[in-house]
Specification:
Helices cover 18% and strands 31% of the residues. The chain is an alpha+beta fold. It has one domain (39-335): Jelly Rolls, CATH 2.60.120. Strands 1, 4, 5, 8, 14, 15, 16 and 18 form an eight-stranded antiparallel β-sheet that branches. Strands 2-7-17-9-10-11-13-12 form an eight-stranded antiparallel β-sheet, with no helix packed on it. Strands 3-6 form a two-stranded parallel sheet. It is globular and about 50 Å long. The two termini are 21 Å apart. The relative contact order is 0.22. Bound molecules: 2-acetamido-2-deoxy-beta-D-glucopyranose (4 copies). One 2-acetamido-2-deoxy-beta-D-glucopyranose (NAG) is lined by residues 51, 55, 57-58.
Protein backbone atom coordinates (compact mmCIF):
# COMPACT_ATOMS: atom_id res chain seq x y z
CA UNK A 1 0.00 0.00 0.00
CA UNK A 2 2.73 2.39 1.02
CA UNK A 3 5.00 1.39 -1.87
CA UNK A 4 2.13 1.45 -4.38
CA UNK A 5 1.06 5.01 -3.61
CA UNK A 6 4.65 6.27 -3.88
CA UNK A 7 4.97 4.50 -7.20
CA UNK A 8 1.76 5.92 -8.65
CA UNK A 9 2.61 9.45 -7.56
CA UNK A 10 6.06 9.45 -9.05
CA UNK A 11 5.22 7.72 -12.35
CA UNK A 12 3.79 10.69 -14.26
CA UNK A 13 6.78 12.91 -13.49
CA UNK A 14 9.31 10.27 -14.42
CA UNK A 15 7.36 9.48 -17.60
CA UNK A 16 7.31 13.11 -18.64
CA UNK A 17 10.99 13.54 -17.98
CA UNK A 18 11.88 10.64 -20.25
CA UNK A 19 9.16 11.21 -22.80
CA UNK A 20 11.29 11.95 -25.83
CA UNK A 21 13.86 9.22 -25.72
CA UNK A 22 12.56 6.24 -23.76
CA UNK A 23 9.84 3.68 -24.27
CA UNK A 24 7.11 3.39 -21.68
CA UNK A 25 8.51 0.08 -20.46
CA UNK A 26 11.86 1.63 -19.63
CA UNK A 27 10.20 4.59 -17.98
CA UNK A 28 8.02 2.28 -15.98
CA UNK A 29 10.97 0.36 -14.56
CA UNK A 30 12.95 3.54 -13.94
CA UNK A 31 10.01 5.12 -12.18
CA UNK A 32 9.58 2.11 -9.91
CA UNK A 33 13.25 2.11 -8.98
CA UNK A 34 13.33 5.85 -8.46
CA UNK A 35 10.20 5.88 -6.40
CA UNK A 36 11.67 3.30 -4.07
CA UNK A 37 15.20 4.42 -3.53
CA UNK A 38 17.24 6.63 -5.72
CA UNK A 39 15.40 9.91 -6.10
CA UNK A 40 14.53 12.40 -3.46
CA UNK A 41 11.73 14.72 -4.48
CA UNK A 42 12.70 16.95 -1.56
CA UNK A 43 14.86 20.05 -1.87
CA UNK A 44 16.69 21.51 1.12
CA UNK A 45 14.98 24.66 2.40
CA UNK A 46 16.54 25.51 5.81
CA UNK A 47 19.60 24.09 7.52
CA UNK A 48 19.88 25.11 11.15
CA UNK A 49 23.20 24.32 12.82
CA UNK A 50 25.60 25.86 15.35
CA UNK A 51 24.95 29.58 15.81
CA UNK A 52 21.70 29.39 13.78
CA UNK A 53 19.87 28.35 16.96
CA UNK A 54 21.09 31.51 18.73
CA UNK A 55 20.31 33.82 15.79
CA UNK A 56 17.20 35.84 16.65
CA UNK A 57 16.15 36.16 13.03
CA UNK A 58 15.88 32.34 12.87
CA UNK A 59 14.95 31.16 16.41
CA UNK A 60 13.39 33.08 19.29
CA UNK A 61 13.67 32.32 23.00
CA UNK A 62 10.29 32.01 24.70
CA UNK A 63 10.52 33.59 28.16
CA UNK A 64 6.88 33.88 29.24
CA UNK A 65 5.14 31.87 31.94
CA UNK A 66 5.05 28.17 31.09
CA UNK A 67 1.58 27.35 29.65
CA UNK A 68 1.86 23.81 31.12
CA UNK A 69 2.44 25.02 34.71
CA UNK A 70 6.01 23.80 35.18
CA UNK A 71 8.39 24.89 37.92
CA UNK A 72 10.41 26.56 35.21
CA UNK A 73 11.80 29.99 34.34
CA UNK A 74 12.27 30.02 30.59
CA UNK A 75 15.17 32.34 29.80
CA UNK A 76 15.60 35.12 27.27
CA UNK A 77 18.32 34.64 24.69
CA UNK A 78 20.77 36.94 26.46
CA UNK A 79 20.13 35.45 29.91
CA UNK A 80 20.33 31.89 28.60
CA UNK A 81 23.66 32.63 26.96
CA UNK A 82 25.16 34.53 29.90
CA UNK A 83 24.12 31.73 32.28
CA UNK A 84 25.66 29.06 30.05
CA UNK A 85 22.32 27.45 29.23
CA UNK A 86 22.57 28.00 25.45
CA UNK A 87 25.88 27.84 23.62
CA UNK A 88 27.73 26.36 20.68
CA UNK A 89 30.63 23.99 21.38
CA UNK A 90 33.88 24.18 19.42
CA UNK A 91 32.76 21.19 17.34
CA UNK A 92 29.60 23.04 16.22
CA UNK A 93 27.17 21.21 18.53
CA UNK A 94 24.48 23.49 19.98
CA UNK A 95 23.70 22.85 23.65
CA UNK A 96 20.41 23.85 25.31
CA UNK A 97 20.57 23.07 29.02
CA UNK A 98 18.59 23.23 32.23
CA UNK A 99 20.47 24.98 35.06
CA UNK A 100 22.38 22.31 37.01
CA UNK A 101 24.39 24.59 39.28
CA UNK A 102 21.83 26.49 41.41
CA UNK A 103 20.49 25.01 44.66
CA UNK A 104 16.84 25.99 45.20
CA UNK A 105 14.29 25.47 47.92
CA UNK A 106 11.39 23.12 47.21
CA UNK A 107 8.79 24.85 45.04
CA UNK A 108 11.16 27.38 43.46
CA UNK A 109 11.47 27.53 39.70
CA UNK A 110 14.53 26.32 37.77
CA UNK A 111 16.00 28.06 34.72
CA UNK A 112 15.58 26.35 31.36
CA UNK A 113 15.30 27.11 27.64
CA UNK A 114 12.51 26.99 25.06
CA UNK A 115 13.21 28.10 21.48
CA UNK A 116 11.03 28.27 18.36
CA UNK A 117 11.62 29.08 14.70
CA UNK A 118 10.62 32.53 13.50
CA UNK A 119 9.52 30.87 10.28
CA UNK A 120 6.31 28.88 10.06
CA UNK A 121 5.71 25.85 7.88
CA UNK A 122 2.70 24.35 6.12
CA UNK A 123 4.23 20.95 5.46
CA UNK A 124 7.46 19.45 4.22
CA UNK A 125 10.09 17.09 5.51
CA UNK A 126 11.80 17.87 8.79
CA UNK A 127 15.02 16.11 9.79
CA UNK A 128 16.46 16.62 13.27
CA UNK A 129 19.80 15.15 14.33
CA UNK A 130 20.50 15.19 18.07
CA UNK A 131 23.60 13.76 19.78
CA UNK A 132 21.79 13.81 23.10
CA UNK A 133 18.48 14.78 24.65
CA UNK A 134 17.51 15.73 28.21
CA UNK A 135 16.35 13.10 30.66
CA UNK A 136 16.04 12.65 34.40
CA UNK A 137 13.46 13.01 37.14
CA UNK A 138 11.48 16.29 36.86
CA UNK A 139 12.34 16.82 33.17
CA UNK A 140 9.84 17.02 30.31
CA UNK A 141 11.75 17.55 27.05
CA UNK A 142 10.08 17.91 23.66
CA UNK A 143 10.83 18.60 20.01
CA UNK A 144 7.56 19.58 18.38
CA UNK A 145 5.73 21.91 16.00
CA UNK A 146 2.65 23.95 16.69
CA UNK A 147 0.32 26.38 14.92
CA UNK A 148 -1.57 29.42 16.20
CA UNK A 149 -5.09 29.15 17.69
CA UNK A 150 -4.33 25.88 19.51
CA UNK A 151 -5.70 23.28 18.97
CA UNK A 152 -7.29 24.37 15.68
CA UNK A 153 -4.07 24.62 13.65
CA UNK A 154 -2.62 21.57 15.31
CA UNK A 155 0.43 20.36 17.17
CA UNK A 156 2.86 17.63 16.12
CA UNK A 157 5.01 16.14 18.91
CA UNK A 158 7.98 14.34 17.41
CA UNK A 159 10.03 13.70 20.58
CA UNK A 160 8.36 13.86 23.95
CA UNK A 161 8.52 12.14 27.30
CA UNK A 162 9.01 12.67 31.01
CA UNK A 163 11.32 11.69 33.86
CA UNK A 164 13.07 8.33 33.33
CA UNK A 165 10.91 7.15 30.41
CA UNK A 166 12.57 4.61 28.13
CA UNK A 167 10.23 5.12 25.17
CA UNK A 168 9.34 8.07 22.95
CA UNK A 169 5.77 9.27 22.52
CA UNK A 170 4.74 10.66 19.11
CA UNK A 171 1.52 12.68 19.20
CA UNK A 172 -0.88 14.89 17.26
CA UNK A 173 -3.19 17.40 18.87
CA UNK A 174 -5.95 18.88 16.72
CA UNK A 175 -9.38 20.48 16.56
CA UNK A 176 -12.50 18.32 16.28
CA UNK A 177 -12.87 15.38 13.86
CA UNK A 178 -9.37 13.98 13.70
CA UNK A 179 -8.25 10.54 14.90
CA UNK A 180 -6.01 7.56 14.17
CA UNK A 181 -7.71 4.62 12.49
CA UNK A 182 -6.78 1.55 14.54
CA UNK A 183 -5.87 -0.41 11.39
CA UNK A 184 -2.84 1.86 10.96
CA UNK A 185 -1.14 -0.10 13.76
CA UNK A 186 -0.20 -2.76 11.18
CA UNK A 187 1.63 -0.19 9.02
CA UNK A 188 4.09 1.11 11.61
CA UNK A 189 7.40 -0.23 12.92
CA UNK A 190 7.31 -3.39 15.03
CA UNK A 191 8.37 -1.39 18.09
CA UNK A 192 5.45 1.06 17.85
CA UNK A 193 2.01 0.71 19.37
CA UNK A 194 -0.96 3.04 19.38
CA UNK A 195 -1.51 4.68 22.77
CA UNK A 196 -4.63 6.76 22.11
CA UNK A 197 -6.80 7.12 19.00
CA UNK A 198 -8.36 10.58 19.49
CA UNK A 199 -6.33 13.54 18.19
CA UNK A 200 -8.97 16.16 19.01
CA UNK A 201 -7.75 18.03 22.07
CA UNK A 202 -8.87 20.73 24.43
CA UNK A 203 -7.52 22.34 27.58
CA UNK A 204 -9.42 19.79 29.68
CA UNK A 205 -8.80 16.73 27.47
CA UNK A 206 -5.33 16.98 26.10
CA UNK A 207 -3.99 13.47 25.52
CA UNK A 208 -3.95 13.71 21.73
CA UNK A 209 -3.54 10.70 19.46
CA UNK A 210 -0.34 8.85 20.25
CA UNK A 211 2.09 6.18 19.25
CA UNK A 212 4.59 4.77 21.73
CA UNK A 213 7.95 3.73 20.29
CA UNK A 214 9.17 0.93 22.54
CA UNK A 215 12.65 0.97 21.04
CA UNK A 216 14.67 1.89 24.15
CA UNK A 217 17.07 3.86 21.93
CA UNK A 218 14.26 6.29 21.01
CA UNK A 219 14.30 8.37 24.21
CA UNK A 220 16.35 9.54 27.17
CA UNK A 221 19.35 7.62 28.46
CA UNK A 222 18.90 4.88 25.84
CA UNK A 223 18.95 7.52 23.09
CA UNK A 224 22.07 9.18 24.48
CA UNK A 225 23.97 5.91 25.02
CA UNK A 226 23.89 5.31 21.26
CA UNK A 227 25.09 8.83 20.45
CA UNK A 228 21.51 9.92 19.78
CA UNK A 229 20.16 9.75 16.26
CA UNK A 230 17.77 11.28 13.77
CA UNK A 231 14.06 12.00 13.93
CA UNK A 232 12.29 12.64 10.62
CA UNK A 233 8.78 14.01 10.17
CA UNK A 234 7.18 13.95 6.71
CA UNK A 235 4.07 16.15 6.59
CA UNK A 236 1.90 16.47 3.53
CA UNK A 237 -1.84 16.62 2.92
CA UNK A 238 -2.11 12.79 2.71
CA UNK A 239 -0.33 11.89 5.91
CA UNK A 240 2.03 12.81 8.70
CA UNK A 241 4.72 10.17 9.22
CA UNK A 242 7.59 10.08 11.66
CA UNK A 243 10.69 7.89 11.79
CA UNK A 244 13.39 7.34 14.37
CA UNK A 245 16.89 6.22 13.40
CA UNK A 246 19.43 5.47 16.09
CA UNK A 247 22.93 6.85 15.32
CA UNK A 248 24.15 3.66 13.64
CA UNK A 249 20.99 3.24 11.53
CA UNK A 250 20.76 6.69 9.88
CA UNK A 251 20.06 6.15 6.16
CA UNK A 252 22.76 7.54 3.88
CA UNK A 253 20.25 9.62 1.88
CA UNK A 254 19.61 11.63 5.05
CA UNK A 255 23.31 12.22 5.65
CA UNK A 256 23.74 13.14 1.98
CA UNK A 257 20.90 15.72 2.19
CA UNK A 258 18.92 13.88 -0.48
CA UNK A 259 16.26 12.29 1.72
CA UNK A 260 13.79 9.85 0.24
CA UNK A 261 11.23 8.75 2.86
CA UNK A 262 9.85 6.02 0.59
CA UNK A 263 13.10 4.09 1.11
CA UNK A 264 13.03 4.16 4.91
CA UNK A 265 10.64 1.37 5.71
CA UNK A 266 7.80 1.51 8.20
CA UNK A 267 7.56 4.70 10.26
CA UNK A 268 7.38 4.87 14.05
CA UNK A 269 4.13 6.85 13.70
CA UNK A 270 1.61 7.19 10.88
CA UNK A 271 -1.35 9.57 10.86
CA UNK A 272 -3.33 9.45 7.64
CA UNK A 273 -6.19 11.10 5.86
CA UNK A 274 -8.38 8.05 6.53
CA UNK A 275 -9.66 9.51 9.80
CA UNK A 276 -8.22 13.02 9.80
CA UNK A 277 -8.17 15.69 7.11
CA UNK A 278 -4.50 16.54 7.58
CA UNK A 279 -4.69 19.49 5.18
CA UNK A 280 -7.28 21.37 7.21
CA UNK A 281 -6.07 20.52 10.75
CA UNK A 282 -2.38 21.45 10.62
CA UNK A 283 -0.98 24.78 9.41
CA UNK A 284 1.51 27.57 10.09
CA UNK A 285 3.67 25.52 12.43
CA UNK A 286 6.80 26.80 14.09
CA UNK A 287 9.34 24.23 15.27
CA UNK A 288 10.00 24.21 19.02
CA UNK A 289 12.64 22.65 21.27
CA UNK A 290 12.22 22.91 25.03
CA UNK A 291 12.87 21.27 28.37
CA UNK A 292 10.11 21.81 30.87
CA UNK A 293 10.64 21.17 34.57
CA UNK A 294 7.74 19.48 36.41
CA UNK A 295 4.29 20.62 35.26
CA UNK A 296 1.34 18.55 33.96
CA UNK A 297 2.56 15.22 32.59
CA UNK A 298 5.86 15.22 34.53
CA UNK A 299 4.00 15.27 37.84
CA UNK A 300 1.06 13.00 36.97
CA UNK A 301 3.51 10.32 35.78
CA UNK A 302 6.23 10.97 38.36
CA UNK A 303 6.26 7.58 40.09
CA UNK A 304 5.13 5.55 37.06
CA UNK A 305 8.13 6.87 35.11
CA UNK A 306 10.72 5.82 37.61
CA UNK A 307 10.98 8.68 40.15
CA UNK A 308 10.36 8.87 43.88
CA UNK A 309 9.49 11.70 46.25
CA UNK A 310 7.95 14.87 44.85
CA UNK A 311 8.73 16.74 41.68
CA UNK A 312 9.20 20.03 43.58
CA UNK A 313 11.78 18.48 45.94
CA UNK A 314 13.60 17.01 42.95
CA UNK A 315 13.82 20.44 41.29
CA UNK A 316 15.61 21.90 44.30
CA UNK A 317 18.74 19.76 43.84
CA UNK A 318 20.78 20.90 40.80
CA UNK A 319 22.58 17.56 40.44
CA UNK A 320 19.28 16.05 39.26
CA UNK A 321 19.74 18.06 36.04
CA UNK A 322 23.21 16.97 34.96
CA UNK A 323 21.64 15.06 32.04
CA UNK A 324 19.02 17.68 31.23
CA UNK A 325 20.48 19.04 28.01
CA UNK A 326 19.89 18.90 24.28
CA UNK A 327 22.97 18.46 22.10
CA UNK A 328 21.89 19.41 18.60
CA UNK A 329 23.79 18.50 15.47
CA UNK A 330 21.36 20.08 12.99
CA UNK A 331 17.74 20.51 11.95
CA UNK A 332 17.02 20.56 8.22
CA UNK A 333 13.76 21.33 6.47
CA UNK A 334 12.91 20.21 2.94
CA UNK A 335 10.12 21.07 0.52
CA UNK A 336 9.02 19.08 -2.51
C1 LIG B 1 15.77 0.26 -1.24
O1 LIG B 1 16.24 0.54 0.07
C2 LIG B 1 15.95 -0.49 0.98
C3 LIG B 1 16.35 0.00 2.38
O2 LIG B 1 17.51 0.79 2.34
C4 LIG B 1 16.73 -1.75 0.54
O3 LIG B 1 16.48 -2.81 1.43
C5 LIG B 1 16.26 -2.16 -0.85
O4 LIG B 1 17.02 -3.24 -1.32
C6 LIG B 1 16.40 -1.00 -1.84
N1 LIG B 1 15.72 -1.34 -3.09
C7 LIG B 1 16.25 -1.08 -4.29
C8 LIG B 1 15.37 -1.43 -5.45
O5 LIG B 1 17.36 -0.60 -4.46
C1 LIG C 1 21.17 35.34 11.20
O1 LIG C 1 20.41 34.74 10.17
C2 LIG C 1 20.13 35.62 9.09
C3 LIG C 1 19.16 34.88 8.16
O2 LIG C 1 19.72 33.68 7.69
C4 LIG C 1 21.43 35.98 8.40
O3 LIG C 1 21.17 36.87 7.33
C5 LIG C 1 22.34 36.64 9.42
O4 LIG C 1 23.60 36.88 8.82
C6 LIG C 1 22.52 35.76 10.65
N1 LIG C 1 23.25 36.50 11.66
C7 LIG C 1 24.39 36.09 12.14
C8 LIG C 1 25.02 36.94 13.21
O5 LIG C 1 24.95 35.07 11.76
C1 LIG D 1 13.15 -2.39 17.91
O1 LIG D 1 14.01 -1.92 18.93
C2 LIG D 1 15.19 -2.70 19.11
C3 LIG D 1 16.02 -2.08 20.23
O2 LIG D 1 15.23 -1.76 21.32
C4 LIG D 1 16.00 -2.74 17.84
O3 LIG D 1 17.12 -3.60 18.02
C5 LIG D 1 15.15 -3.21 16.68
O4 LIG D 1 15.90 -3.09 15.49
C6 LIG D 1 13.90 -2.37 16.59
N1 LIG D 1 13.05 -2.90 15.52
C7 LIG D 1 12.55 -2.12 14.55
C8 LIG D 1 11.66 -2.83 13.59
O5 LIG D 1 12.83 -0.95 14.44
C1 LIG E 1 26.24 20.16 34.82
O1 LIG E 1 26.10 19.15 33.84
C2 LIG E 1 27.20 19.07 32.95
C3 LIG E 1 26.85 18.06 31.89
O2 LIG E 1 26.49 16.84 32.44
C4 LIG E 1 28.46 18.69 33.73
O3 LIG E 1 29.57 18.66 32.85
C5 LIG E 1 28.71 19.71 34.84
O4 LIG E 1 29.80 19.29 35.62
C6 LIG E 1 27.46 19.88 35.70
N1 LIG E 1 27.66 20.97 36.62
C7 LIG E 1 27.82 20.79 37.93
C8 LIG E 1 28.00 22.02 38.75
O5 LIG E 1 27.82 19.68 38.43
Amino acid sequence: MHFLSGFLLSLPLASLAGHKSRSFGQNHRRAALKARNTTSTYVLEDYYQGQSFLNSSLWTFFDDTDPTAGLVNYQSSSDAQSKGLAYVQDDGTTVLAVDNTTTLTSGQYRDSVRIATTKSYNGGLFIADFYAMPYGCATWPAFWSVGPNWPDQGEIDIIEGVNLNTHNQLTLHSGADCAIESTLSSLVSGNSTIGNLQCASSASSNTGCTYIDNDARSYGQGFNQQGGGVYAMDWNTDAIKMWFFSRDDIPSDITEKSPNPSSWGEPAALFSNSACDIGSHFSEHTLTINTDVCGGWTESAFSSSGCSGTCADTVADPSNFDNARWKINYIATYQS
